[in-house]
């Protein structure tokens, strides 16, 4: 629920009711704003996404649109940016608009070695066109090596810029696999993301 300013709320009322709703003092105005008669409906939706890519020698390690120097990188049709793919799925999921594979199929020659930031930009546009704005994104990358911490601020900045968000609306954490499973053995990179979106006020 979002509060309207009292003046705007009163303007939305039928003419005959406006006078009785126009407050005479500031206190009365505040009192009315804090009461539910001038609230309009805003709906929130949440989405989840994850992605896993095998790591192989001779591939560039790209995460969050940032090139991280390392001797292995994700195998994929595009640049294999697992973090961006997980965020795209979280955003699309929140809006019930399908998933990243459906919008950017790995059989399409156009996406061969493509920067996944193109997908993210397009997903941002799809959401805006459907009447949503992004509230925040939270994400985690699972990678044994190299250490991601020094790169996180740049990754956050890049993701936020593509989606026209403030960096404070994008959160990214990094975790190792503690030597266990495909992540721990350094065979794969995994990313998980959640996104909260809200309807844009008319
Ligand atoms: Mg992927």
Structure characteristics:
202 residues, alpha+beta, 60s Ribosomal Protein L30, Chain: A, five-stranded mixed β-sheet, two-stranded antiparallel sheet, 8 helices, binds magnesium ion
Query: Numbering strands along the chain, what is their spatial order in the largest sheet?
Result: 6-3-9-7-8
Oligomer: single chain
Beta-strand residue fraction: 25-35%
Secondary-structure-based class equals alpha+beta
Q: CATH H-level name of the largest domain... which superfamily? A: 2-C-methyl-D-erythritol 2,4-cyclodiphosphate synthase
- The CATH topology name of the largest domain reads 60s Ribosomal Protein L30, Chain: A
Mean pLDDT: 88
Spatial separation of the terminal alpha carbons: 14 Å
Bound molecules: magnesium ion
Give an overview of the whole structure.
With 202 residues, the protein is an alpha+beta fold. The chain folds into two domains: 2-40, no CATH class; 44-199, 2-Layer Sandwich (60s Ribosomal Protein L30, Chain: A). It is 33% helix and 27% strand. The chain has a five-stranded mixed β-sheet. Strands 1-2 form a two-stranded antiparallel sheet. It has a two-stranded antiparallel ribbon with strand order 4-5. β4 (62-63) and β5 form a beta hairpin. Bound molecules: magnesium ion. Residues 51, 53, 76, 82, 85 line the site of magnesium ion.
Summary?
With 202 residues, this protein is α+β, with helices and mostly antiparallel strands. 33% of the residues lie in helices and 27% in strands. Magnesium ion binds at residues 51, 53, 76, 82, 85.
């Amino acid at each position: 629920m979002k509060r309207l300013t009292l003046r705007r709320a009163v303007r939305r009322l039928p003419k005959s009711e406006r006078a009785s709703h126009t407050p005479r003092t500031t206190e009365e105005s505040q009192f009315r704003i804090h009461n539910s008669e001038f609230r309009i409906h805003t709906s929130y939706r949440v989405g989840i996404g994850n992605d896993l890519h095998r790591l192989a020698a001779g591939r560039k390690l790209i995460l969050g649109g940032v090139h991280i120097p390392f001797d292995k990188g994700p195998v994929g049709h595009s640049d294999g940016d697992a973090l961006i793919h997980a965020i795209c799925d979280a955003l699309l999921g929140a809006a019930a608009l399908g998933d990243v594979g459906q919008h950017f199929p790995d059989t399409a020659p156009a996406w061969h070695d493509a920067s996944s930031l193109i997908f993210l930009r397009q997903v941002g546009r799809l959401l805006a066109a459907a009447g949503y704005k992004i509230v925040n994104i939270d994400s985690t990358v699972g990678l044994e090596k190299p250490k991601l911490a020094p790169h996180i601020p740049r990754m956050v900045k890049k993701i936020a810029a593509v989606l026209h968000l403030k960096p404070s609306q994008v959160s990214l954490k990094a975790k190792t696999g503690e030597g266990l499973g495909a992540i721990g053995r350094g065979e794969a990179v995994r990313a998980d993301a959640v996104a909260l979106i809200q309807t844009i006020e008319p």
